[in-house]
Amino acid sequence: MKSFEINQAWGGTEKCLKCPIRNLALFADLQQADFNLLHQPINEFSFEAGESLYTEKGTAKFVYTIRSGMIKLVRYLPNGSYRIIRLLRKGDLAGIETLNGSTYLHHAITLQKTEVCRIPVEEIEALNSNTPHLYKQLTVQWQKSQNDADIWLSELTVGTSKQRIANLLLYLANNSSEEDSFYLPSRDDIGALLAITTETASRIVAEFKRQSLLHTEHQVAQINKPELMLIIKAGN
Q: Residue 210: pLDDT above 50?
């Protein structure tokens, strides 16, 4: 893992103001005077695939804005298996529950090389008390978290296994930063996302490939959206 302190590199505000994903991030509406209220550095981190940002029930000192890559929020079960609660992508806020005084509710693990900005919770609390420009984006992030949770409950963990995988592929494609491709999680992670076995996930992914509904190279995927929509509607 590599990191550097943003304020040592640019003096505290300029890089956030010019950030290419600022319109997606927590600080989207902040003005220069608001950044002057920050007293602790915001650090940039680069994680390789499989690294952990934080662990469930860990001491919550930071939230993380995702600049690039993808993170899975994981719950480990007593039987040794795990479930993936949500996927977080560019512009999302990891650890948002800490802003409500909670410890971390999940393990946050990178699925691919991921870059984040680490923001001290104390600074967000201070900004929220001293400027009106943070409240809107906090509300947006809370609402997005709720919307994603609703999608997981209403679409990705109901229906047949084929329907679930078809829904997941469409969800990943529709939320990808790339125009016609997206990152495809491992078969184990697909199973943990959709509450199906790894074997079932492998079998259906292989079937979709044979039917030219899914094309993959390494973990970069492309799909046939109209045909996958028919599978969802037919319930096969």
A: yes
> pLDDT (tens digit, 9 = 90+) per residue, 143-187?
888 888 777 777 888 899 999 999 999 999 988 878 789 999 999
Q: Could you give the percent of the chain with pLDDT greater than 70? A: 88
Q: How far apart are the first and last CA of the chain?
A: 44
pLDDT of residue 71: 96
Q: Given CA atoms 38, 58, 117, 222 in this order, what sign does their dihedral have?
A: negative
CATH topology of domain 2-140: Jelly Rolls (2.60.120)
Place of tokens 């991921």: 114
Please state the φ and ψ torsions of residue 143, each to the nearest 5 degrees: -65, -40
For residue 108, give every residue at least 6 positions away whose Cβ sits within 8 Å of its Cβ, in sequence order, or none: 52, 53, 54, 64, 71, 72, 73, 74, 88, 94, 95
CA distances (Å), 207 to each of 155, 211, 230, in order?
21, 6, 15
CATH of domain 157-234: 1.10.10.10
